[in-house]
Amino acid sequence: MIGVVPTREALWRAREMGLDLVEISPNADPPVCKILDFGKYKYEQQKKKSEARKKQKIVEVKEIKIRPNIDDHDYDVKMRQAKGFIQEGDKVKVTLRFRGRELAHIDLGMKVLERVKNELEPIAKVEQMPRMENKQMIMVLTPR
């Protein structure tokens, strides 16, 4: 901390030390500058950015496909997968596909998705309620 110094003197001091005069806050009155190695400063900023990028978690959407007349064991296997995905912090998209005459019994599909919702209630919340899209019903769950 040197205090208020004329620009020429600040530049002279920076050159004498073999460093750069870097303007930190140009809008201040008077402008705030620092004497530092600008290359090293840029390198450290880049390191901080890459470190922040490493720590952030990218949320993926994992999809689980089921049918309206799914068997109990198959359902249990799919629920284990869904629980694993949610515990890893990913969203789960449950797709219930109807074929042929199953389209006449959409209520059965709603029951299956309601069962999925109730089973995953402690660890997940419904982001998107079940809705029909063509021949499939879709529901999206996110971790709590």
Broad structural category: alpha+beta
What Rg do the Cα atoms give?
29 Å
Q: Kindly report the average pLDDT value.
A: 90
- Fraction in beta strands: 25-35%
Instruction: Please count the beta strands (DSSP E, at least 2 residues each).
Output: 6
Task: Provide the helix percentage.
Answer: 40-55%
Biggest pleated-sheet summary = 4 strands, mixed
Major sheet strand order:
3-4-6-5
User: What order do the SSEs take from the amino end to the carboxyl end, as H and E?
Assistant: HEEHEHEHEE
pLDDT < 50 runs, ≥5 residues: none
Number of helices: 4
The rough form would be described as rod-shaped
Distance between the termini: 49 Å
Q: What's the layout of helices and strands?
A:
Blueprint: H1 7-17, E1 20-25, E2 32-36, H2 38-55, E3 61-66, H3 72-87, E4 91-97, H4 106-120, E5 124-133, E6 136-143
Parallel strand pairs: 3-4
Antiparallel strand pairs: 1-2, 4-6, 5-6
